[in-house]
Amino acid sequence: MIIVMKPNTSKNIIEDFIERLQNKGLIVHTDFGDKYCILGLIGDTTAIDPEQIQAHDAVEKVMVVQEPFKKANRLFHPEDSVIKIGNGSIGGGKLSVIAGPCSVESEDQIVSIAQDVKQAGASFLRGGAFKPRTSPYSFQGMELEGLELLKIAREKTGLPIVTELMGTKMLDKFVEDVDVIQIGARNMQNFELLKELGKIDKPILLKRGLSATIEELLMSAEYIMAGGNENVILCERGIRTYETYTRNTLDLSAIPAIKRQSHLPIIIDPSHAAGMWWMVEPLSKAAVAAGADGLIIEVHNDPANAKCDGQQSIKPKKFKSLMDSLKEIEKFKWSFDINEIGF
Ligand code: PEP
Ligand code: MN
């Protein structure tokens, strides 16, 4: 961080100000010009708030040169993080696919889809038990019963389960029953919830908010990590733009952008991004080519009668052929190279 002091500020005030910064553990380099004094801060500047500094009477300008996130920052952790989930993992170069229906509807439905996606090569089963719906009159999920059915599907297939937690009330239950806790786009900045997630060690799949910047996504990851839980997987699921032909706009550039800034794995959700089943294939292929660590795809055996998001769900047969073609694309996918980027 660079701080430019107002012209002709007295030396006493500047020295006082420097002392306050030094008391926060920072090294302060000073450059006294004719009129201006410039301070260069070295050390962990995450502890100071640039807006608070800017509010000081003697401060002309504050320039932030380093990202505000630390634990999620690749600068302090150059190697890719690999998040362990049961016997599997996400991150570190290999492609991991999470697949399953938007929501759990019955034992037959979830078990049969779990068997199909496993056979096609998926490593994790998704399925919503508690659903964040725009309308309070829409299907809200099977809730605790849905969670039990997911556990049955896990037992029958061995696939670890990924499901969404909507608030702190069910946290203990999720810690006990679930392999990866999904935090949906609408809760990305639920800071109270994020703080609670920091106190556990369960892997967290953190989805990007509907209108969140990449930095805001990384700051939300930082909330969880700052509390002590470093098992965070990021997910780009489309952001809201002026475009109406798709449900959201898939921001593929989030993959290289996040890879450069952070060591955390980043996966892509083409289903919620596009909102249409026939776009899932091209977007999945593009995501793998662009270096995504994985995908989360909605698969349903009867999309026309699905209780949620049928229009964006692909059938098991389509999922199988997609998985086969992804193996080919994986061979020439982009991967982040610290030396090439000159990090
Ligand atoms: C989901 O994965 O079912 C979901 C609701 O996703 P998002 O939070 O990205 O909308
Ligand atoms: Mn859905």
Automatic annotation (TrEMBL):
EC number(s) from the headed UniProt entry: 2.5.1.54
Source organism superkingdom: Bacteria
Residue intervals passing through the bilayer: none
This protein's record includes keyword Isomerase: no
Keywords of the record: Transferase
NCBIfam families listed in its UniProt record: DAHP_synth_Bsub (TIGR01361), PRK08673.1 (NF006421), PRK12595.1 (NF009239)
Name used for this protein in its record: Phospho-2-dehydro-3-deoxyheptonate aldolase
Protein's organism: Clostridium pasteurianum DSM 525 = ATCC 6013
The gene coding this protein: aroF
